[in-house]
Write a structure and sequence with these properties.
Rossmann fold; 4 domains; five-stranded mixed barrel; about 20% strand
């Protein structure tokens, strides 16, 4: 038996993979520890979506090795840029090989090295067949698919996750039922792109939501990111499914650019007009919709005019949150071969858009002051306060509250990133 510490980076999908590895190791008799100093082996469950993230993780791997830890690297980095992984690591596992984590640890104990990074085409792994070990007590992540149907010219994640493989609705529903029986109050439906769920098996996200909301119990569903080109195909059906009280009125719909030519170069397969059509349709039905979107600034070929179109789009649709990313070329992608914009210009555009998004978020959140809203208590937050979420997934800070309880809170104040309030029931 050895003591293993797991560091998860990146998306909710990756965190679910980390919980699978934790469960497999626990069942094999190893101890999962939550203090790095106690560990003998560290699993770095990596992300490689952006160049800064990659550099951060590569640096972290070196630090752990220099401290004398045995390190196993999993996640997307082994697929995207294995060259940056320090040769001293004890094992390297791809996203389709996490079921070999016990073997990797046993190799590491013996001083041997296991490398298993198969191409996604050559190894199929249904992760809903694997156990989970989660420390969280309020929300539970349920992967609904792996891979996607897009071919974005800037994305390297697809080299790791591959083409869409949707998990069966029956297995997903069983995991949701299990989580509710365990006392979880919030279910995260997670995938690289929830919008194309089921397209490969003759169903879709709306039908899945209908099946999950039919499950008895008091719980809420948080739907993960979905791309516009898929949502537009079953928009009315999806909006109808969202009307159920169990579904958070939260929509993460990345647009990436306000310029159609840049979207074409990105390989995004939708137009700005289609993106706005989806937003308008959702807002018409759900006035309190919490809209998150993503913008990439500095993509190759982005002129000043194209950037200004992104700025105008954000001013026009006023999202609750904009995730602003500075474009960075990823190995093996088409866009990495194109002429790159200067770093200073990308940084300048990023700062401008970030200031705009904070201003818009602040104005939106101020309108919540004085309102009474149902909230779900997540648990302890920073500085002794309590973190909770509203039914449209706005984070609200409360002075007190019992984890896992639904309460009514009154909003007393607001910042650009969260609300502040107190329980009134």
């Amino acid at each position: 038996m050895v003591k293993v510490y797991i560091e998860n980076y990146g998306c909710a999908r990756n965190r679910a993979d980390g919980e699978i590895m934790a469960a497999l190791l626990h069942l094999a008799g190893h101890e999962i520890v939550y203090d790095l100093d106690e560990s003998e082996i560290v699993i770095v469950n990596s992300c490689a979506v952006k160049d800064p993230t990659e550099r951060k993780i590569a640096r972290r791997i070196r630090e752990l090795l220099d401290e004398g830890k045995k390190v196993i690297v999993t996640g997307c980095l082994p697929h995207v840029n294995p060259e940056v992984i320090d040769e001293r690591v004890s094992a390297v596992l791809g996203v389709k090989s996490i079921d070999r984590i016990v073997q990797a640890v046993e190799y590491a104990i013996r001083g041997e090295k296991l490398i298993s990074v198969p191409d996604w085409r050559k190894r199929n792994l249904d992760k809903l067949d694997l156990p989970r070990l989660s420390l969280r007590t309020v929300y539970f992540i349920v992967p609904i698919a792996e891979g996607c149907l897009n071919a974005c010219t800037y994305c390297a994640t697809r080299f790791a996750r591959g083409v869409l493989k949707s998990y069966s609705p029956e297995k997903i529903v069983e995991w949701v039922k299990w989580a509710i029986k365990q006392g979880y109050k919030e279910i995260w439906l997670s995938a690289e792109d929830t919008g194309c769920y089921g397209f490969d098996i003759g169903t879709n996200l709306a039908k899945l939501l209908d099946e999950i909301t039919a499950i008895e119990g008091e719980f809420r569903i948080r739907v993960g990111m979905m791309n516009p080109n898929h949502v537009i195909k079953f928009l009315d059906e999806l909006i109808e499914a969202y009307q159920d009280d169990k579904v958070y009125k939260f929509l993460h719909l990345p647009v990436q650019s306000g310029d159609n030519e840049i979207l074409r170069r990105m390989g995004r397969n939708y137009t700005v007009e289609e993106f706005e059509e989806i937003v308008n349709a959702f807002r018409k039905k759900f006035p309190d919709l919490n809209l998150h979107t993503d913008i990439i600034v500095g993509f190759p070929g982005e002129s000043e005019e194209a950037f200004q179109k992104s700025v105008e789009l954000i001013k026009r649709i006023k999202p609750d949150k904009v995730n602003v990313s500075r474009y960075s070329p990823r190995p093996g992608t088409i866009a990495a071969k194109w002429k790159q914009l200067p770093g200073w210009l990308i940084k300048e555009r990023s700062r401008l858009l970030h200031r705009l998004r904070l201003q818009i978020s602040y104005e939106i959140n101020q309108k919540y002051i004085g309102r009474k809203m149902e909230v779900l208590i997540h648990g302890e937050g920073k500085k002794g306060n309590v973190d909770a979420v509203t039914m449209n997934y706005k984070h609200i800070i409360l002075p007190k509250g019992e984890k896992g309880k639904f309460e009514v809170a009154k909003v007393k104040n607001a910042t650009s990133t969260y609300l502040l309030g107190e329980i009134v029931t």
